[in-house]
Amino acid sequence: MMLFVGSKNPVKIQAAHNTIRQLDGLAECLVEGVAVPSGVADQPMTEEETRQGAVNRVHALLDSKLATQDDWLVAIEGGVDKFEDGPATFAYVAIYHANNWAVGRSANLPLPEEFYTQLTQGMELGDVMDKAFNTENVKQKGGAIGLLTDNTASRQSVYEVAMTLALARFRFPDLYD
């Protein structure tokens, strides 16, 4: 049995692997990251676009014909939006296995208005964070979450919680059918 993750980003791959391995029978699951298109902007700027990016990545994995019916497909898409309480970043996760879907969302991480303005001008959040904190390629490390929480949370930890919650559908399928 395989776990295919719709990204080559090591943070997304590790988060998916750590979470899926907790399901019964999947402790020894092999994982492969696959670069697939999201079909949305490199920096999704709305909840809807972010969710669509995660779902599109799973569809791209399905279209690739890499997976069998027994395999698990996961995609994680980070995005931003401006809410009533201000701009924030978050992620959507899409999970597919044996003709069943689950889509979930992480909590919001508030963003400074200055960062959001740079995003509306075409920058990606990782680049904004690298510039502001003098880091390099933070999106493949702790991410904005690590930086803005002083490493009390990380991009990976937030993805793992979002996936854990979305997997409830697979843990108790009788309750969701």
UniProtKB/TrEMBL annotation:
Binding-site residues for Mg(2+), renumbered to this chain: 69
Catalytic reaction list: XTP + H2O = XDP + phosphate + H(+); ITP + H2O = IDP + phosphate + H(+)
SUPFAM superfamilies for this protein: ITPase-like
Pfam families: NTPase_I-T
InterPro entries listed in its UniProt record: ITPase-like_fam, Non_canon_purine_NTPase, NTPase/PRRC1, YjjX_NTPase
MF-aspect GO terms: ITPase activity; metal ion binding; nucleotide binding
Keyword Disulfide bond on entry: no
Top-level taxon of origin: Bacteria
Domain annotation Non-canonical purine NTP phosphatase/PRRC1: ranges: 6-170
GO biological process: nucleotide metabolic process; thiamine metabolic process
Co-factor binding details: Binds 1 divalent metal cation per subunit; can use either Mg(2+) or Mn(2+).
Known EC number: 3.6.1.73
Co-factor(s): Mn(2+); Mg(2+)
Keywords, ordered alphabetically: Hydrolase, Magnesium, Manganese, Metal-binding, Nucleotide metabolism, Nucleotide-binding
Broad EC category: hydrolase
Assembly and binders: Homodimer.
Function field: Phosphatase that hydrolyzes non-canonical purine nucleotides such as XTP and ITP to their respective diphosphate derivatives. Probably excludes non-canonical purines from DNA/RNA precursor pool, thus preventing their incorporation into DNA/RNA and avoiding chromosomal lesions.
Family the entry assigns: Belongs to the YjjX NTPase family.
Protein name as catalogued: Inosine/xanthosine triphosphatase
